[in-house]
Amino acid sequence: MTIRLLLPLTISLLLSGLASAAPVQLVTGDDYAPFTDRELPQGGMLTELVQQALLQAGHQPKLSWLPWKRGYQATLRGQFDATFPYLKTAEREADYLFSAPLYEITQRLFSRVDDALEPDKLEQLAGRRICVPLGWQPAPRVSELLAAGKLLVHQPQDLTACARLIDMGRDDFFIADSLLGERAIHLSGVSHQRFHVSRQAVGSHTLHFLVPRKRADAQQLLNEFDGGLRRLQDSGEYQRILDTHREHALRAE
After folding, report:
1. Considering the entire predicted model, what is its pTM?
2. Could you name the CATH architecture of 106-204?
3. According to the UniProt entry, where is the signal peptide (predicted)?
4. Which of 7, 9, 22, 242 is the most buried (most CB within 10 A)?
5. Each residue of 197-233: pLDDT tens digit?
């Protein structure tokens, strides 16, 4: 009788353990160096960070790569458990829960050293030409100037092209995260000494790991992920991952 009573409980616990051991299905996209790209070491800074945080939380991550829009929508439909890295917006918050920040982006204005520009002097920017890579969303303050017709915009393929165009005098400035801007200048082959990096930040925002709200255990998965991320930060592994990828980004050819 005792065996009969214990058997269902044992099976239930076993199935529960198997369910919790199921891989966490992740999806991200390419061409967002140094954060995510399958050609980068460990898939990029934030790809490594997300997978390590999940491992710290006792989960086995399984990563897929899709175009950004497809991956985002597929996660929303339940084909994936989570996606990353994304900025927090009201529209996204309606559908997703957001993790603690993975990385803080500090945007600065990059211009020629002989025509140094600062974002606090907006009158300097009137009539100037900003370089914004295709698919990028300009900073809110810049979007206002563009909408008012006070700025001209040029949209090449990538930020490296922007660095070259500014050096040639065809564009006046670009705005990017400090690391992304430094990497673009490095890849352009132009000397860093030819550029002025604004002392004042244009703005800052954070990148996050997203779990669909309609997932049954969404909050639990997010809490476990955040716990794993904290353990990485407390151990120093978080900073090691960031530093390693920063060094690679600035050495890349």
Report:
1. 0.78
2. 3-Layer(aba) Sandwich (3.40)
3. 1-21
4. 242
5. 999 998 888 999 999 999 999 999 999 999 999 999 9
